[in-house]
């Protein structure tokens, strides 16, 4: 090959379009927010103006900053439709900071009066809370650290320390806009922030309680992790190297409670509605629908699909046993458990979800979704089971999913291969599973983890989950699913 054809393609760079000044700091600058919130916000600014440039903050690794810096913070969003890809260059990012390298600069940006919103996607475990109760976990090592040190490491620590500086400087607080898949996410983060603040300074907690705003949100867009081969493929297609593209499905939905810090008036938030965000008074019915219908079945398919040897969600639902299973879960076990938002036909919603899962262009790994199950099960699956049990509705599919999670965190798959279990409680879960020698005692041991299962539910689940666990062991996953049908 001639030498000039072997040269690396030029790096992606920003266009000369004017940039809005920063108005938002975003904590947890992963692929999801870069494929979702940034795009809505950029559209809102294009349509209605406003200084809503975004400062991204990575709470752990420098990787995203290192990839974006040489591109002047711009990147490509790649929309993966079954019929082909659509590319768009996102230019709303002003800067990316890496908190562990310089927590002081993060706090100083967050306490700058031009910042009116701090949004978050720090994943479930980033809230340092107890998933079963939704309260701050006071024994969390990061929380213990942050209560003692003015330069924090945790998301709650950054929020409270920055609010403390703003109060001391006589400024208004920022609106805290959580975009994680947690139930009542605004109420939850508010409770966590207040718990933390109260331990630091009760007067600060009182100020946050009256002045602070924590709208709840429902966020939805499937965003599989970007792989090195995606970067290569994009570079070949465009002739330009982007080291930080994000891949996502065409579908998106963002529902936000319209409750922002009032003192900023019109300038409290971007004109989100103009870019398609649904601004509502109460997000609860949307969030129930999304967490139970989408995330609940995502997790069920992730554990069962992984155990059955499927690599991605689209492969899993292409297997007829799983297609029947997931439709049955929606219809018989999940849809009857909650009241949908007004005007939404849940049958249609489920049909659309199935099509989204089946999209072969989305290679969303079961292993990726299986991560952090201890933080996800309560709001995705256990709440639905509890509601089903309350009304005497059978839920064998969800119970099988809990048993599959137990098999999964046991760390060995159906072919005796080691599973790379990623979960903040992984070691403890593995030890509980290994420490018991028969299914009944393994299941009881795992049900005793109070951060996940409350005592009442654990008692009700012991018998049925043990049976389901035995079926998975005895028959294998696919056969166990067939017996359900
Ligand atoms: C997934 C979600 O990784 C997971 O646990 O269930 O990230 C899911 O793709 C999004 O919530 C879709 O909006």
Please describe what this structure looks like.
This protein is an alpha/beta fold and 485 residues long. It folds into two domains: 22-280, Rossmann fold (3-Layer(aba) Sandwich), CATH 3.40.50.720; 284-484, N-(1-d-carboxylethyl)-l-norvaline Dehydrogenase, domain 2 (Orthogonal Bundle), CATH 1.10.1040.10. The protein is built from 21 helices and eleven strands. The protein has helices at residues 3-6, 31-34, 37-48, 63-68, 103-110, 141-148, 155-168, 185-200, 202-211, 228-238, 284-307, 313-318, 320-334, 346-358, 366-370, 373-390, 396-409, 426-434, 439-447, 455-475, 477-484; strands at residues 22-27, 53-58, 75-81, 84-90, 93-98, 117-120, 175-178, 217-220, 246-248, 253-257, 278-280. The strands form three sheets. It has a five-stranded parallel sheet. A hairpin with a 2-residue loop joins strand 3 and strand 4 (84-90). The longest helix is centred in the middle third of the chain and has 24 residues, at 284-307. The structure holds D-mannonic acid. The site of D-mannonic acid (CS2) has 9 residues, from helix 11 and helix 15.
